[in-house]
Specification:
22 strands; binds calcium ion; Neuraminidase; glutaminyl-peptide cyclotransferase activity; 14% helix; Glutaminyl-peptide cyclotransferase
Length: 280
Amino acid sequence: MVSVLVVFVVSLVWIFSVSNDVVATQIYTIDVVNEYHHDPGAFSQGLIYAGNDTLYESTGLYKKSSVRKVHLQTGKIEVFHKMGDSWFGEGMTLLGDRLFQVTWLNKKGYIYDQNNLSQIGSFQHQMKDGWGLATDGKVLFGSDGTSSLYAINPVNFEVIKRVTVKYEDREVHYLNELEYINGEVWANVWVTDCIARISPKDGRVLSWVFLPQLRQHLLTSGHTKIDVLNGIAWDEENKRIFVTGKLWPKLYEIKLRPITEQLNKNTMDMCSPPKIIHRM
Ligand SMILES: [Ca+2]
C-alpha cells in the first residue's frame, strides 16, 4: 500500500513538472514593422547588422557565393566580394572589424576586412561542417547542421564548448543561421519557419518564434522561387530584429508577440523535424 502511494505521489510530481515545462516554454508570433528590398538572387546564409543602417550578408550556391555590404533602407549592395566558384558561402559574423565566414561541406573559413571586404585571412575549424556563425563579442558561436551549438575561440578556432540543443528531451537538428541576442543564441532551424531561442549555457530551447506567414505571403504574392527562411540580424542599439530568407525579395524588421498556444506534437514536428532528410 505504501509503495502504491509512493508511486502515485511520484507520478503526480512528474506530471506537474512536465506540465510546468510546457507552460514555461513561451511561443512568439511576429508582427512586421518594416519591410525592405532584398536581392532575390541572394541565397542568404549569414546576416549581420553593423550599425548605421548597414547589413553584411554572406550568400551561398556554387559559382554565386558572395559577401556583401548592404544598405538597409534601399537594399543597395555597396561593396561586393565574389567568392571562388568552388566555394559555397555559409554563416558569417562580425567581431571587431573583421568578418568571419564558414563554408559548406568544408572546415575552412575566411576572414574579411569589414570596410572593403578584402579577404585578409582564413582558418580551419573543428565543427563537422560550416553552417552558422554568431558572436557575443568574445567567442564565436557556430552551427554545423546538427543539433550541436559550439563556442569557438576566435584566435585559434578551437572548440571551447559544445552543447546539444534540445527542446525538452528532443534534439533540435539542422541548426542553421545564428544570431546572439541578449544572452541567447537564436537559430534558424533549416527547412522550417521557426527560430529557436537557445541558452548557450546548456543548449536548452528557451522559446520558439513562429514565422510561417512571411514565406506564405511571399508565395501567395507570386514569388514562387523563394527558398527557406534563413538569416537573423540584431540591431542592439535600436533593438531591431531583421530576418530574411534564401532568394527572398524582401528583408523584414519584425517584433515578437507572445501567444498562448500550447505546444503539441504537430508544433514540435513543425519546428524540429526528425533527422531524416538530407540537405541539397
Ligand atoms: Ca546572423
